[in-house]
Amino acid sequence: MELAVSDNDKSILLEKKNVLNPSVLDKYRLAGQITQTCLAYLTELINDSYHLGKHEPYSIAELCLLGDSHMKVALDSAYKNQVREKGIAQPVTIDVNDVVVGYSPEVDDETNFKFKAGDIVTINLGCHIDGYTSNLSHTLVIYPPGVSVGPLLGSSADAICASYIASETVIALLALSLTPEKIPQSLADGSGLIRGSTIRQIVDSIAESFNCVVVPTSKVRRIRRFLAGQAEGIVAERDFKGVVWSEADQELKLLKKSPKYNGSQELAKYDKTRSARVTASSAVPTDDFVVSPGEVYTVDIKMAPLQETEGPGLITLQAVDNVTGSNNSNDAFKPRPSVFVRDVAISHQLKLKTSRKLLSTVDNKLSVYPFKLAHLTSGFPFDLSGDIDQQLRSIQQDIKPARLGLVELVNRHLVVAKPILRARFVPLQVILNASTSTGVNGYDAENPVLPGLELPLPRLGVTSLKLKSLLKASKEIPVAREQSTVVLNGDNNELIRLSGGLSTSKPSWVHSKFQLSGNVAQSVNDLVQLTQDQRFGLKIKECQPMKSSN
Amino acid sequence: MSTSRPQYTCNSCSLAFSRPEDQRSHMKTDWHRYNLKRRVSQLPPITEELFNEKVGNITITSEGNDIREGLSGVNAKQMTKKEQRRLEKEALLEKKKQLLETAKRRMISSNDQVPVHDDIKAERAEVESLPNDGKGKPMLFDNTQDQANDVYDEDWKTEQLIDQKIKNKVEIPSDTCMFCGYVSLDLDGNIDHMFKSHGLYIPEMSYLVDKAGLISYLSEKIGLGNMCLSCNFQGRNIESVRQHMRAKGHCKIPYETLDEKMEISEFYNFESSYFRNTEAGATDTDEEWEDLSDDGAGEGSEDEVSTDDLYTNGYELYLPSGHVAGHRSLMRYYKQNLKPDRELTEGQGTLIAAETRHFVQPFDRKELQAKKRVWARQEKLKDINDRRSAKFINHQAHYRDQLLQ
């Protein structure tokens, strides 16, 4: 590798800068506040236009740009001349129904659309100040216009319930790690520690009781300064700590359900570190970790309901773009990738002047977080009180030259397009009938995943490329997602919830026909009681959105 | 028989003897040996008188050698021609060294403010005197001779030579071509003629202040010194040197090395080229030039113009405009087109620090070469093995009839 950082710098950047001191906490808190404010702003826009009919509804592209602008304006006024790097850590993406992540169309994208009643809409955004990042996702329901029509019913409602309850439960679990003496009887395993496996187990049980599946790429992970999961699959970061759900977990569960499996048999062992192409095994995610105070976590739970599916099957993800499969599929949803992230380890002498200019802008003006081309135009951020249509049009013009340069950057792997992923249900029958003639060594380089997870179905020996080809026989499935960032402040044993929470991410009015049952119901009830008990329970503080200035 | 034809002869010397004793005694003489040697080298024999004369001559020269050798006591006969030549050469070298030393001593003793070109001229005169001295008395150089006496001797000889030169001097006027004697209208016409017909190019024309002086100096060099302008050829007279210069194309003023530049520097004034240094007096400048010639610094010409806003650190010259001129010896480094070092921001640094991906290793030429050598050796061994085993393909220990199988 050409670039290298000295050991001294390495320990400063990876360890010392991540120690939670008051100034770091302030930065986290402010980042959290900005994300909360932005979510509140977007929710208000959607409610006003779609539910209350106060103005003409905005399309997704417009909402995304407005959200970005709102965040950017707030960031510009924060920590002026005090920090070198601050900005949008996750451009606003609005994922509707089966879209899981990454849909943030530019204004001129052909797929750009407006919501329909009954859609479940996930708003996903994030910002960072000096690398201290706060990410946030929340799923809303679009109701028919008018007031008080009733709750959302059906499979989407199950997913929303499951994701909300799971994320709140995980946050309570993380808070418990600060005060291990308060671990309730239903959760105690005698060690007094909150482990990755504890988190996985409780999330899986919640999903099961709501007849849902935890969608691959869901994760509860520790984040660090500048390492907030924005480059997952690109940077194989050392000392990865977190629970990551993948297709392999669903596969394991399905195999265990098989009538031929008698419980004592040992399933084929699979060593994740073997397939991972990394220099340190700590980059491969495992559940074998302990949550400890002083860390910052992102809880990102995505749930997909199995209500409308038949028979056993897997929930997997399909990357969509404007090129792939354009010849033999009549799928109309062909969005152009619009969110890109710089791969800083790669350097290349570029040919086009526009691409060199774009690269230097990305390297100097933006940080290491994902960006959209619109962020680089002169008209950004918007004057939110001015003529928005006019500004949108000018941005559309400004994007064109940058897009030319971007092609070379992408071709040279200097920047990587963040994939737009859709959730797909593939029946197990289809998978079992397929054979992977190429063996299990192939992997999909186009859609990078975390190291060690290159092979989606290791026990069945199905590669990601094979699985991709099986998606023709798949069925789309809605996904609900809740993401929030929490700081485990060990100094006064409190959990600071940077994003999400009741102040902004109040769950929509839904009604699921399922409810928690059995052991998990007891655990979740205990946890809820602890969070609500002001005196003896868990101390959880939420970042409130800023008072609106206009 | 014995009377008519003597029985005892010497074929080498074409002699006959009546008695065998005579013959034997003859055979023992040097004369006979000499003739024998001559016979071997297919030369006719010589008579006894001639031989004796020759022997007499050699004895005289060998005696002379003995005298010259003095106390050394080395056998004169042992000295070969080669050794003689070497000795002569050494003596000549010694003499040259002495001459140079005396010249140096004289320079030190004389006033420091002697103009440079005078010095050069004097030195040249001494150098000119060298070959003549060598001709005058080729080997008679005595180490024991008194130094002062020697200096005096040298001076006297130089005087003599200069006198002779002055006697032979041909005055070339400024409007006459120094190479062919063509008479032009004036000095400029003459310069024009010399440029067009002989290709005499006068360097740095714009800084030349004493044109007539330069031409008269060059003319004197040819007319008085009979010296070629561009090589160290010295003609016997003005015609020979003119012919040499025309034939060899030496009608040019050499202007490459510092010495060559210094030779004609008194006719030039470069002050106008040091844009800010004009306030320095003329005498100062002269002294600076003097210093420069003493130092003999080749490229350090920036040092002289050391004002506040124009300075150098030896490799870079800082101009008042703010530009920095690099030294040409470092040109290869300035010329290279390197990518500037990438300055990582904290975010990029963090990502690089946390990175554990495998990257393609840079291509290592040495490693590949070593590998190639191993492969080549393996191939060769395989080939040898194949050839060896091919010999035994049809080898059967015992004959087996195919039909009987």
TrEMBL record, chain A:
Its main location: cytoplasm. It is found in: Cytoplasm; Nucleus. It holds the Pfam family Peptidase_M24. InterPro entries: Creatinase/aminopeptidase-like (IPR036005), PA2G4/ARX1 (IPR047113), Pept_M24 (IPR000994), WH-like_DNA-bd_sf (IPR036388). Residues 27-143 form the Peptidase M24 domain. Keywords: Cytoplasm, Hydrolase, Metal-binding, Metalloprotease, Nucleus, Protease. Probable metalloprotease involved in proper assembly of pre-ribosomal particles during the biogenesis of the 60S ribosomal subunit. Accompanies the pre-60S particles to the cytoplasm. Belongs to the peptidase M24 family. This is Probable metalloprotease ARX1. It comes from Pichia angusta.
TrEMBL record, chain B:
Residues 284-305 have a biased composition (Acidic residues). The keyword Coiled coil applies. PROSITE patterns: ZINC_FINGER_C2H2_1, ZINC_FINGER_C2H2_2. Residues 280-305 are annotated as: Disordered. Residues 8-32 form the C2H2-type domain. It comes from the Eukaryota. Keywords: Coiled coil, Metal-binding, Zinc, Zinc-finger. PANTHER family: CYTOPLASMIC 60S SUBUNIT BIOGENESIS FACTOR REI1, ZINC FINGER PROTEIN 622. This is C2H2-type domain-containing protein. It comes from Pichia angusta. The lineage of its organism: Eukaryota, Fungi, Dikarya, Ascomycota, Saccharomycotina.
